[in-house]
Design goal:
The protein is of the alpha/beta class. The protein contains 17 helices and 13 strands.
């Protein structure tokens, strides 16, 4: 970024994707994976991955082989997933009030909190592949202009969807024409005009109100269509044309449906098809004062819709506020007591690394980290207190079930998988391998040098 550019972000992925060095690129890749898979908890992935790499450093310093650490981490990951499934709670996705609470609890720090109802409505009605977001900075949603020669508002239109051009079709290969008289050149131009006129007459005969094509429309064809009071939209993407067909319930041919308006928002033309009966696709238009604010609103809206998607795909929830990390850490520590061998210590260090999440919550609210984290550990050893976590606003330990703080199970599972897999990659890092071999061979080199010197 130059000194004239700036970013507005609330998630860490917006920052780490600008990094260029190897380690930062690895974190950026893992954060992008998290964002693509579940669309949330990118910050948690970076924090957990960094903490797991940090606790593994002490074992490398004590000459423990990276393969031993990796095997312990993999076993810990399997036990973490099993514990998550045990503590998860099924949820009724048809319960609208509960879905709104889940969205609000997950996106409570985002600017999109007041649009949770919109995100819930969208995901209850549309499929993921039918959603699309378009941004146009400056102005507001109802502001715009329109071409002066075509109608802006059409009520109950006849819509014609095409995938061919409305212009004279040129040959596939190079074509040469030899003419000997001046009249022949005029005749060729007349033939092209007659062809375009015939194509337009075929369309006008169907009496459509709106023509949408994926290819170009010549100026002469536009002239004929304007004279027939037909609105035309050209060079529409194939994917957009298919989405319009789904919204209208039509094939790419001719179909009757509703259209709202043809509008120009910002520097782009938009066609709004509204009041459709049982539509299968929709587009969200975002307007804002600047591109940076629009980018932030788009990310937050995607997070809110992704929460609904994750819950609908996997209708299971786990408590938030650091409860899940404390319960999984308590389970790993309990299982580590029955383990033998050197794998025990890296396995137990994963439990210590998980506590970084509630520790960050406590630090962010300004409370005493040691005192509150110790109290939280003691709570999770008691019966019936496994749902207690950190209230990020008040800085106290409370029951997350009473506060209604929940997170989708799919998000937590993906977070743990991504964080542990990032730490596992330390064996493939040449720098880590070199550090291990250097620490192992350093005493021998010093001993040989001492003998030679004596």
């Amino acid at each position: 970024l130059t000194f004239t550019q700036y970013l507005v972000y609330t998630d860490i992925y917006s920052k780490v994707r600008e990094y260029e060095r190897t380690t930062e690129l690895l974190l950026s890749t893992k954060a992008r994976t998290q964002d693509e898979e579940v669309g949330d908890k990118t910050t948690s992935v970076i924090i957990l991955a960094g903490e797991m790499l940090s606790v593994a450093e002490q074992f490398l310093e004590h000459q423990m082989h990276p393969t031993v650490i990796i095997s312990a981490y993999r076993k810990a990951l399997d036990d973490m997933i099993a514990t998550l499934k045990e503590i998860s709670t099924p949820v009724d996705v048809s319960n609208r009030e509960l879905m709104l609470k889940i969205i609000n609890s997950v996106d409570t720090t985002k600017a999109i909190k007041r649009w949770a109802d919109l995100a819930c409505n969208i995901w209850r009605r549309y499929l993921e592949e039918s959603l699309k977001t378009r941004k146009s900075w400056g102005g507001h949603g109802e502001q715009g202009c329109h071409p002066p020669q075509m109608r802006r508002f059409i009520k109950n239109p006849r819509i014609l969807l095409l995938d061919c051009s409305l212009e004279y079709k040129k040959g596939e290969s190079q074509t040469e024409i030899e003419i000997t008289r001046e009249e022949d050149f005029s005749c060729i131009l007349q033939m092209e005009e007659e062809y375009i006129q015939q194509v337009c007459e075929d369309i006008i005969r169907l009496k459509p109100d709106l023509v949408i094509t994926e290819k170009g429309i010549s100026d002469l064809a536009q002239h004929y269509l304007v004279k027939a009071n037909i609105t035309a939209i050209r060079r529409v993407r194939k994917t957009d044309n298919n989405r319009i067909a789904r919204a209208c319930g039509a094939r790419i041919a001719s179909r009757t449906d509703d259209i709202r308006e043809e509008d120009k928002i910002g520097s782009e033309y938009f066609a709004f098809l509204t009041e459709c009966k049982d539509p299968k696709a929709c587009t969200i238009i975002l307007r804002g004062a600047s591109k940076e604010i629009l980018a932030e609103v788009e990310r937050n809206l995607q997070d809110a819709m992704q929460v609904c998607h994750n819950v609908m795909i996997g209708p299971y929830l786990v408590p938030g506020g650091g409860v899940t990390e404390m319960r999984v850490a308590h389970s790993l520590k309990k299982k580590s007591k029955g383990m033998t061998g050197v794998n025990k210590w890296p396995y137990r260090s994963v439990a210590n690394a998980l506590e970084v999440i509630p520790r960050m919550f406590i630090q962010n609210c300004g409370a005493s980290t040691i005192r509150l984290l110790t109290s939280l550990r003691a709570k999770h050893t008691q019966e019936g207190c496994q749902s207690w976590g950190v209230d990020g606003e008040a800085g106290v330990i409370v029951d997350m079930k009473d506060l209604g703080i929940w997170e989708p199970l799919a998000v937590k599972m993906q977070t743990y998988k991504t964080a542990v897999e990032t730490a596992i990659l330390l064996t493939a890092d040449p720098g880590v391998s070199a550090l291990f071999h250097y620490r192992v061979t350093r005493p021998r080199v010093f001993f040989l040098f001492f003998i030679y010197y004596c």
